[in-house]
Structures are given as C-alpha cells and as structure tokens.
Specification:
Distance between the termini: 14 Å
Helix content: 40-55%
Number of strands: 0
Shape: flat
Structural class: mainly alpha
Strand content: under 5%
Number of helices: 3
Length: 86
C-alpha cells in the first residue's frame, strides 16, 4: 500500500513538474558527499517543494509519515538494498 502511495505521489510530482525546479541540482548528476552534515539547503528545498506539491494537489489524503517512510525506502532501494525500515 505504501508502495502504491509513493508511486502515485511520484507520478503526481512528475506530472506537476514545472518552472521553479532547479535542473542543475539533480541528484543523479551530483557528486556523492560523505560529510555527514545532512541535507544541503538546495536538496532540502527540493524535498520541501515535492512535499508542498503533494499536499496541495494530490487527490487523496496522505500522511507526512507515510511520505517520509516512502522517501526513506526509496533511498534504500536506490542503493539496491531492499530492507523494511519500519
């Protein structure tokens, strides 16, 4: 169910993508950081933009906790690691 919610959210975000997105800060093209200092301001800004778009335009109610869990799971899956975080 969480996977369905995250997938639907991703589809919503992709379909709503428009002006204001910083194409140059795409994570795929960015160098890996190992500083352990948390999110850079531009990365946190991108996450907040996605959260705002979902909260404003997604048709079904969804909790922030569900979105956070899905984001964390997505990061682990991007590494090729399939674990249950919760």
């Amino acid at each position: 169910m969480v996977l369905m919610a995250v997938s639907a959210s991703a589809i919503t975000v992709v379909s709503l993508r428009g002006p204001g997105w910083d194409e140059d800060s795409d994570v795929a093209g960015a160098a890996a950081t190992t500083s352990g200092e948390g999110w850079k301001p531009q990365e946190l800004n991108k996450m907040n933009k996605v959260l705002d778009l979902i909260e404003q335009r997604y048709l079904l109610p969804i909790s922030r906790g569900t979105l956070l869990d899905g984001a964390l799971q997505g990061m682990m899956e991007a590494l090729g690691t399939r674990i249950r975080l919760i």
